[in-house]
Every structure is written in structure tokens, then in C-alpha cells.
Amino acid sequence: MGLTYAIPDLHGRLDLLERALREILEHAAGRDACVVALGDYVDRGPNSREIVELLTTWPFPSLRLIALKGNHEAMMWEACNNLVETDWWLENGGDATLASYGGLRMGEALRTLIPERHLQWIGKLPTIYADPHRIFVHAGVDPRLPLNQQNERTLLWKRYPKGSSLGHGMRHVVHGHHANEQGPVVCKGRTNLDVMAWRTGRLVVGVFCDDKAGGAVEFLEVRGNSSAG
After folding, report:
1. Measured between alpha carbons, how far is 175 from 53 in angstroms, rounded to an integer?
2. Count of CB atoms situated within 10 Å of the CB of 88
3. Which stretch of DSSP H or E encloses residue 75?
4. Nearest CA among 104, 97, 101, 115 for reference residue 45
5. Can you give the residue ranges of every domain in the chain?
6. CATH number of the domain at 3-223, please?
7. pLDDT of 45-87, one tens digit each?
8. Cα separation of 227 and 229, whole Å?
9. Which end of the chain is less enclosed by CB atoms within 10 A, N or C?
10. How confident is the model at residue 109 (pLDDT cuts 50, 70, 90)?
């Protein structure tokens, strides 16, 4: 029985990621498994750089990593490539990311502060991953469109209307992005794992059986310090 573990929005909380990975390794009990990270590794929390470094070097041979892009990685990449105003990114948590890279000195360009290999990795992140039973994505999918016709803005920024339980055809959608401290939110067609971990100090990992359709068979929860920020 293959297992896939979905890790939602981390926003700089390396402590929670490290605890989650220990839980996943213990739960997998030596079996090979898949880890899908749903994006938003950077911004808001204190350790964005360290999270990106861990994901780019990934020291767990028994865990196949699929790291997806979140809207915060998109903002970071666009700001560093002068495609959006830097202040827009900074006002949305990018200031914490810059601090994790050592802080920007007067007149210094973003690309001199952030390692090029980090930016290249972010630029190549996929926006969606699908297996026979599920679709993993940062924010959501348009249920009316085939997967190969999805708009990137939808995948990175979508908010599902309150009460919506739509997945995508017969597939269950697993996502983050829509923060809910009381989550995870489990509906017939989708599961939202984002419980605002960077603020609450609580991270919920979904455990999915590769041979079984539908939602998670179980959840792994780790806790750290909450933030007043």
C-alpha cells in the first residue's frame, strides 16, 4: 500500500517542517513514500531560506519529494525578476524572507542577496500534481476545465466559495492557501489542509492511500510555538 503525505503552507516555519518530517518517517516505517509539499514555503515566518535549502537538498532517500509552487513563491520570483513592485511582495510577508537571507542593504539588489540556485529552483516548481485518485495543488482548480487547460492564477490564488465541495471530476482535490485555524476542512470532493501554521504553530499533514480514492485516511498533526505576528 503506497502512501502520499501532503504538507500545506509552511511560511517559514522550519521547526514545524522538521517535526512533520520526523512524524512522516516514523509513520512510513521504512517504506518508500511520496511527500507532496503544497507551496508557500516562504514569507511571514522566520526561516524561509532554511526551508528552501532543505527542500532543494532533500536528504530523505525513502521519501520522493514533489514540491509545488505557491503564490508566495510566485511573488518572490516575480519581485526578484522585476516583474512586480518589490513593496507588494514585502508587504505580503516578503520582509521576513529577506531577513532570513540576511537583510537587504541600502542600494542592494534582491538578486545579489538571494542565491541564484534558490531562484532557479522556485522558477521551475510545478503548479499541479495528479495521481489516479487525487489532484494536489496550492490553491485550487477550475472544475470545468481539463487539467492541461488550467490557468496558473487559478492554481496559485483560487479561493473556493463557502460550502463548495467540488473536486475535479472523479478526483479529490488536496490544497492549502485558504487559511482556516479550525481546519483541516474536509469536503466530499476536496480537502483544505491550511490551518495557518505560521501563526498557530499547528501543522496538519494529510495521509493519502495511493490505492484508495477520496480524502485522507488519516492526519498527522505537529505543534510548535504560536506567533503573535
Report:
1. 23
2. 12
3. helix 71-80
4. 97
5. 3-223
6. 3.60.21.10
7. 999 999 999 999 999 999 999 999 999 999 999 999 999 999 9
8. 5
9. N
10. confident
